[in-house]
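Request:
Um, any thoughts?
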Amino acid sequence: MFDIWILVQQREGSIEAPTFGLTAEARRLVSELGGKGIVTAVALGSVSLEELASLGSYGVKRVLNINTDQINRCQGEYFSQALFNAVKKESPACLLGAQTPESDDLFPRLAGLLQTSLVTRAMDFHMDSGKKARAVRPLANGYLFEEVEFEWKDMPLVSFLPSVLFDTEPDSNKDAEVIKLVPDISTDALKTKITKIIEAAPEDLDLEEADIIVAAGRGAGKGEEFNIIRQMAKAVGGTIGATRPIIDWGTLPYEKQIGQTGKYVAPRLIINCGISGANEYTAGIEKSHQVIAIDKNPRARIFRFADLGVVGDLHEILPQVISRIEELKK
């Protein structure tokens, strides 16, 4: 029987949306392996028993909650060793996770300890009972894709792009069995320790964590013209996102791209500036709570998705908005 593990993504004790997408991927793998398997979730740190048990309604058979009073935040060295011990004891078929800063730290450490395969930024992943595995990953800012094949003698680790992990609905009222595991690891033996937590400035937050996003499209312009977007983000305490042309121009790095080949976002407010609203982009903002759009073209597709649409030149409108916000702050 195959045991497919998923890593629970949680923040401040709440399970986050990518976890549910991982349950769907794990159940698909069980089906592809002939249906003879189970899904096990692994949660690191403190999460309520009730919340962990609720994963049963998403097809999770059991949850391994690795927790300790010694460390209350994700610590890559500690939890990779704890996971290594659990894997050696349980021998799962694979471990799936969402690509996050935490998994970026944890998975390479664990793969190194296990001397096993690691696939990052996966968009698709398959494995068969003949010990063959296949994954698809984006290259060149999403312009190209590569397919990699390998044998999975030992447990492979796969981190999926969060944008490909879609919401899934619970299909039963079952509770998962929750098993508490307390690692037998001394913190004195660790080579690294957390000395200080530095909160990121709003404009530097990861798009998927942001409450407010100021998104820029081709209409925002290049060079100094783009500074108005930075000023707007600073005024509202938001993170900057962008469409593909802005990334292609080199104005922002790829991790700031929103859309089908970038990130799917769900902020409380998104202000779209100079964005026409191509389907590839709007697919990435569908879960946004409030949408504002500013564009010169009154027929721009982005207005179909906006709660508030403003027709005009963003370089004339935004300075007035910023000025008014600054006045209200005084």
Notes: The radius of gyration is 22 Å.
